[in-house]
Automatic annotation (TrEMBL):
It comes from the Bacteria. Transmembrane segments: none annotated. Pfam families: SnoaL_3. This is SnoaL-like domain-containing protein. Residues 8-126 form the SnoaL-like domain. It comes from Pseudomonas bharatica CSV86.
Length: 130
């Protein structure tokens, strides 16, 4: 039987892989419906998975695509049926025909949902230069 930490690491890896492959259905299936999102690139928090899915669809209509994503320095903090996953992410995106490379830090909060770890909050911030 896998430890809870290993289960969370697998859930995080599945989320990152789905994002990296630009597979919206698999990516959003990694989140609970009531998940919230705080991104440094978006002016206000997104208060549900549906709100993020709608924004994602708008982005894709404007030429957005994920070209790749690498996770490093992952750490898990278990808090009962909640787990906090922190990592650094190197992401390649295409936005409006232009390719961007981003270096960011991310926290994903997972909650145990019927035996499955689902992300219930994601906070993405720019990696500081210092």
């Amino acid at each position: 039987m896998l430890t809870r930490e290993t289960q969370v690491l697998q859930a995080a890896a599945a989320l990152v892989e789905a994002f990296a492959s630009n597979h919206a259905e698999r990516y959003f299936a990694c989140f609970s419906e009531d998940a919230t999102f705080l991104f440094h690139t978006v002016p206000q928090p997104l208060m549900s998975r549906l709100a993020y899915e709608q924004l994602w669809a708008e982005w894709q209509a404007e030429g957005f695509a994920v070209l790749g994503c690498q996770s490093s320095n992952g750490q898990v903090s278990l808090q009962g049926d909640v787990a906090i996953f922190m990592h650094d992410v190197a992401t390649r995106l295409r936005i409006g025909g232009e390719e961007l490379r981003l270096q960011e830090r991310e926290t994903i909060v997972f909650r145990l949902h019927g035996g499955r770890w689902l992300a219930c909050h994601e906070h993405l911030s720019a990696l500081s230069d210092s």
